Amino acid sequence: MGEKSLLEERVLSPEEFVAGYQYITEYLKAGLPLCDVLKRALKYFEDQFVDSYCTIMLLNSKRTEFVNGTAYSLPDDMLEKFLHIRLFDGLGTFGAAAVRGELMVTPNVYNDKSWKTFSNVVEPYGLKSCWSVPVFKPGTSEVVAVFGVYSKYSRYPTQRELDTLAAYNELLGLIISNYKVHDCGDIQPLNQHQEDELDSKLLYAESIKTGLKNGDIFPYYQPVLTSDGQKLHGVEALARWEHPEKGLVPPIDFIDHAEEYDFIDWLDEVICRRACEDMKQLMDLTGKKFMLSVNISAVHIRKKDFAQRIETILHETGFPANYLSIEITETSLIENLKDVAVTFQHLKSLGVKISIDDFGTTYSSLNYLKYLPVDTIKLDKAFIHDVDKSPIDRRICKTIIQLGCDLNLDVIAEGVESTKHLTIIRDFGCDIYQGYYFSKPLTLEGWKDYLEQF
């Protein structure tokens, strides 16, 4: 079954709604400007919709024109031409949705007279269709914004797309309505503290990109062992940043920025490619074969060409696909399970293994095993940490390990830091381990030295 068919057949489940709500409101809780909050929302919807570009256009208090504060994912010069346009001057689908307060669809903008004035704006970007939905102030019929969706194809919205947007329409209206608006209709400007904070984040994101360009971000390697640590199972590549001033920076301090500013795919591919190159050379040199696990952001894996990018890396580095494991954090996979399954099936066809990290930390754990072609589950270190003290953690660990065995999956215990941890987990039936008890993450040279003992 094709990817598009899987998209159209899905139903927005309660857990998907909660995940979307948490994603959209994350910036709101952080106190960021409205435009940033809305851009966060657009990223969510574009992940849900088919071949689409989204925008949220805000109305002034008199509902006569669109104003600054609009959020969009299309080029700046295009959407800026739509600002401060009076609704009755013929702004096609957007203006009609705002005036009529209902869904408006233009399957082909070049055949719609109301788009005549603006068709030259969308033409350079290859956009052919547009549909728009009014966003209401909660509990009223007052339109505070218009949510618009462009596509490079002549098409109507799917029912899935309409249902998804309808589910969050009230939330968007609530967010927009609760921000202060000047009488002129513009969103209240940032205060000095907010401007400084935003500038600081942008500068930090640019410094991460510079680190990628300069080769300052590269993998460390942490061993994964079996048989009480006597045999080598594999190694996990973990991103580290050798900052020229701050020294070694852990991934928790830069991964989120790469996701937020949409260059996480670049970072993931740098680490994956470097790890494949390093381990291919090491395998050829030593004659030893072992699994290489590489962490991939769920933001990256949802992109349509992700599997093809991995295939290209494997081809260009010569690394054997059957020794590569793509590792995804469980908590980030809650959205689009069936879409992710399509990508996973492509990877599996190459011979690549699939691993779910932090297994057991969400209520959807069993859904992942049901819908995704998983080879390995990694028992979250939060359960391992107190397994020698907490009866609950012991029961959870034992249950997950038994489940993995019943489903013929490899189970890796992360965060093993003591003999007690190892003994308990081993007695529960887990025979693959990772943690500081065996080794901290190592440089490439350190990993080469460590490997000599096997």
Polypeptide structure, described:
It is a single chain. By secondary structure, the chain is α/β, with parallel strands linked by helices. It has two domains: 3-189, GAF domain (Beta-Lactamase, 2-Layer Sandwich); 215-451, Alpha-Beta Barrel (TIM Barrel), CATH 3.20.20.450. The chain is built from 18 helices and 14 strands. The chain has helices spanning 3-9, 14-29, 34-48, 76-80, 92-100, 119-122, 159-177, 192-214, 255-260, 264-286, 298-301, 306-317, 337-350, 365-371, 381-385, 391-406, 419-427, 444-451; strands at 52-58, 71-72, 104-106, 129-136, 143-151, 217-226, 231-243, 247-249, 291-295, 324-329, 353-359, 376-379, 410-413, 432-433. Strands 6-7-9-10-11-12-13-14 form an eight-stranded mixed beta barrel, surrounded by five helices. A five-stranded antiparallel sheet has the order 2-1-5-4-3, sandwiched between helices. Helix 12 runs parallel beside helix 13 (337-350). The protein is elongated, with a radius of gyration of 25 Å. Residues 1-10, 69-90 and 180-187 have low confidence and may be disordered.
Q: What is shown here, in short?
A:
It contains 18 helices and 14 strands. It has helices at 3-9, 14-29, 34-48, 76-80, 92-100, 119-122, 159-177, 192-214, 255-260, 264-286, 298-301, 306-317, 337-350, 365-371, 381-385, 391-406, 419-427, 444-451; strands at residues 52-58, 71-72, 104-106, 129-136, 143-151, 217-226, 231-243, 247-249, 291-295, 324-329, 353-359, 376-379, 410-413, 432-433.
